[in-house]
Specification:
This protein is mostly helical. 58% of the residues lie in helices and 9% in strands. The protein contains 5 helices and 2 strands, in the order αααββαα.
């Protein structure tokens, strides 16, 4: 990864900006798909359904895009304090537990990203080349 970072930093600024845009588009799509696939379980009278879904986010840093559950806490009471931390119970939902079947939402979204990312980076390269050609004229 260090070599990829060095190669990225050696690119002209226009390529770096366009690649970051491509990563952001791909990460946004993966985040949106994860939110779409994320189950929302509500108990009767539960006003907090959807906390896990709303905690899914992304961050782009250089040549890396991170999509996952944002570290945040929902400070409220409840019968299970783990539900105050989506990063904890998100793992339970994704992979299941002894008495709970898995309901994957991040892994199917990541599959979308595997297809989307190369396409977005290729588009970014074409746009960057067009930007450089326009500057040269």
């Amino acid at each position: 990864m260090a070599k990829a970072l060095e190669q990225f930093e050696a690119l002209p600024a226009v390529f770096q900006a366009r690649c970051s845009d491509g990563l952001t588009k791909a990460a946004t799509l993966v985040r949106d798909r994860a939110r779409m696939f994320c189950p929302v379980g509500t108990l009767p009278g539960d006003a907090h359904g959807g906390d896990l879904r709303s905690a899914i986010g992304f961050k782009v840093v250089g040549v890396r895009a991170f999509v996952g559950i944002v570290l945040q806490s929902f400070r409220r009471g409840g019968r299970n304090r783990a539900h105050q931390w989506p990063s904890v119970y998100g793992r339970w939902v994704e992979f299941g537990r002894r008495n709970q079947s898995s309901e994957p939402f991040m892994r199917p979204a990541a599959e979308v990203g595997r297809v989307t990312l190369p396409v977005e980076i290729a588009k970014a390269g074409v746009l960057a080349e067009a930007d450089l050609a326009a500057r040269a004229n």
